[in-house]
Write a structure and sequence with these properties.
- The chain is an alpha+beta fold.
- It has two domains: 251 residues, Up-down Bundle (Rhopdopsin 7-helix transmembrane proteins), CATH 1.20.1070; 138 residues, Jelly Rolls, CATH 2.60.120.
- Helix 8 runs antiparallel to helix 9.
- Keywords: Glycoprotein, Membrane, Signal, Transmembrane, Transmembrane helix.
- It is found in: Membrane.
Length: 510
């Protein structure tokens, strides 16, 4: 969608686009669930974590190629699984040395690959390059277990003089396009994203059709345009996610920068929708035409804080999430901050809706179902975070959380699309003032500001606010025709008659 007033949008919704180059240039860690892993390790430690993968119970496969100087012999590849007595017992266990970490391995489960020529299953042989003898090992290992398990691959040489290894590993689950390069906790993400992409495209098309009908009736208000913008950004986010996962399914690597861009767009859609809900709760485009100066500043500060927290969360994920642990977005300080901001937004939303209902009880057919429906939405994110952190097994967390998140977004957009459908039989339809009309604000009482004088069925606050002041109500505003007089509601239109407040000169504030 084209935004008629770019500068207003820049003031209102803290821009994410200028932050994109910074985020895309961030040094990214190796993909924790990487299916094709390669690198060159040199460390003074005697035990080092390499990578992890969630294998299927029957079809997991590791194919590897290792090479290191024969002088550094003999090194071992250790395969830990997610049992509490295995990986959790050794990773970041300061009280355990290399031998103690190796002692939890069960030899009968073939969890050790000794990188020497004496161990036939390692496929090692001695090669000479430029006068240096190397042990070159090329082989594979299949994984069988009673359920899907996380497996962690480490390198060790206890009591030696450090580790040195060139490695290349391909970790797969079967041979299907939909599973081969995916960790078991990622199964179904691509299919889910494609499904929701098609659904959101349908929602966006319907919103465009409804917008066409609303524009013909001069009822295409700012809040509905914000809804369309949120739906459109959601479509772009899912499109980039599908491209990323499709490429990932092909080569097992993917483009991590593309995934970060998709996450940014996903967050942007959420923020636009959240701002729209708060504005509707305050009565904007439903009972008033403008938000007060103080309210506009508060919204600017809040949305800036929320945006920065989302950006910090993405940076935190990229820089500080430990690939040796299966972590979730909300298992971080930034994630807890998002939950706190969500609670603050809900309290604000409740207060705004109650004030609007107190002054405009005739708007109950819209605000009561609106408040009930989005109360569920506001609590969905904190509840999802608690369920993900404490109720979903780590080997199934990512795919389940992905589906829940998309379902929450679909619920929010679907409910709003239904509630604002431009049907003559829809008594809950929130808009009644045309975009080309100016309503009387009434006469404020002693000590009252103009935005608190709520006349019936018209915009409440038409007090002029300077262009230099951040104002959320200018988002996607439609200017009136310069030469045509402002229309008045026809007696049989079902709309109230409005007192004409036009000054002698040209109108500047609509």
């Amino acid at each position: 969608m084209e935004a008629p007033r770019g500068p207003a949008l820049h003031r209102l919704l803290p821009p994410l686009l200028p932050l994109l180059p910074l985020l895309l240039l961030l040094p990214l860690p190796p993909h924790a669930g990487a299916k094709y892993v390669r690198g060159n390790l040199s460390s003074k430690e005697d035990w080092v974590f390499l990578t992890r993968f969630c294998f299927l119970s029957d079809y997991g496969r590791l194919d590897f190629r290792f090479r290191y100087p024969e002088a550094k012999c003999c090194q071992n590849i250790l395969l830990y699984f997610d049992d509490p007595s295995q990986w959790p017992a050794v990773y970041k266990a300061a009280d355990k040395d290399c031998l103690a970490k190796e002692s939890v391995i069960r030899p009968e489960n073939n969890q050790v690959i000794n990188l020497t020529t004496q161990y036939a299953w390692s496929g090692c042989q001695v090669v000479t390059e430029e006068g240096t003898r190397y042990l070159s090992c090329s082989s594979g290992r299949s994984f069988r277990s009673v359920r899907e398990r996380w497996w962690y691959i480490a390198l060790s040489k206890c009591g030696g003089d450090g580790l040195q290894l060139e490695y290349e590993m391909v970790l797969t689950n079967g041979k299907s396009f939909w599973t081969q390069h995916f960790s078991a906790d990622e199964f179904g993400i691509l299919e889910t994203d494609v499904t929701f992409l098609l659904i959101f495209i349908l929602i966006f098309i319907l919103s465009c059709y409804f917008a066409y009908l609303l524009k013909a009736r001069q009822l295409l208000h700012t809040t509905y345009k914000m809804f369309m913008a949120a739906a459109g950004v959601e479509v772009l986010s899912l499109l980039f996610f599908c491209i990323y996962w499709g490429q990932y399914a092909t080569d097992g690597i993917g483009n991590e920068s593309l995934k970060i861009l998709a996450k940014l767009l996903f967050s942007s859609s959420f923020l636009i929708f959240l701002l729209m809900l708060i504005l509707l709760g305050k009565g904007f485009t439903v009972t008033r035409g403008r938000i007060s100066h103080s309210g506009s500043v508060k919204l600017s500060v809040y949305m800036t804080l929320y945006t920065l927290t989302h950006v910090v969360l993405l940076i935190y994920e990229a820089k500080f999430f430990d690939p040796g642990q299966v972590l979730y977005t909300y298992e971080s300080p930034a994630g807890y901050g998002l939950i706190g901001l969500q609670v603050v937004a809900y309290v604000w939303f409740c207060y705004a809706v109650l004030v609007s209902l107190r002054h405009f009880p005739e708007k109950q057919p819209f605000y009561v179902p609106f408040f009930a429906a989005y109360t569920l939405w506001f609590f969905a994110v904190p509840v999802m975070a608690l369920i993900a952190n404490f109720g979903i097994p780590k080997w199934a967390r990512e795919k389940i959380v992905n589906g829940i998140q998309l379902g929450i977004h679909l619920y929010a957009h679907g409910v709003f699309l239904i509630m604002t459908r431009p049907s003559a039989a829809n008594k809950n339809f929130p808009y009644h003032v045309r975009t080309s009309q100016i309503a009387s604000a009434g006469t404020p009482g002693p000590g009252e500001s103009a935005d608190k004088a709520f006349p019936q069925h018209v915009y409440g606050n038409v007090t002029f606010i300077s262009d230099s002041v951040p104002n959320f109500t200018e988002l996607f505003s439609i200017p009136p025709p310069a030469s045509s007089p402002l229309p008045r509601a026809a007696p049989d239109s079902g709309l109230p008659l409005f007192r004409d407040l036009r000054p002698p000169g040209p109108l500047r504030d609509l």
